[in-house]
Each structure stands twice: as structure tokens, then as C-alpha cells.
Amino acid sequence: MASRQPAHGGSAQSKEIHVDLVAEGIREYRGPHHALAVVSVDANSSLRIEISAASELDWQLDARIAGGSVEVGRVFCEGDSVQDVDVPDWVERVAGVVGERLDGGS
pTM score > 0.85 for this model? Predict the structure, then answer.
């Protein structure tokens, strides 16, 4: 994981996580092969997960880690708030991989 400038707030710490959707078993019929998740953690341990993939819309998730998994609070697509039912499966599953990696997985 590489560090980069914080996505939200000057005191936040940020990491890039590259996810191979095929290797993770996430790939949908028309979905992307790879995704980049930029995870920012602020002083209150709040997470902002920004997920981007080629030929896909950009997703932003406000979340926290609880019990070793990611609990998503609010979801945004291209900056607009969206309902949980409108979030593609691959985005939810990438968030799960991010949680595993932050919790000490691969």
C-alpha cells in the first residue's frame, strides 16, 4: 500500500489499496478487472473509502471498521448521495476486501 495526500482533512492518513477483482472472485459479467481504493482515516477513526475503476463511476463510502469488517454509513457516487440498493455488488465487495486488508489480511 502506498501513502498519499489525505482525501479529507489535513490530519487524515491515507493509503492506496489496489484490488484485483478477478483474483478476489469479484468480477461481474461487465464489471471492471481492477479497482483502486484510497482509504483515509481521520483522527476520530472515521474512514472515507474512495473507489475507482476503469470505465466505471467513482464511489465514495463513509465507513468504520467494526468487528473486523467495514460498516458503511453513507454512500456517494460521483459526489451525489445514493441509496444502498443502488450500490453495485462489486463496490460493496471491494469495500469488504479493503476492510480485510486494513484489519491485517493480505
Answer: no
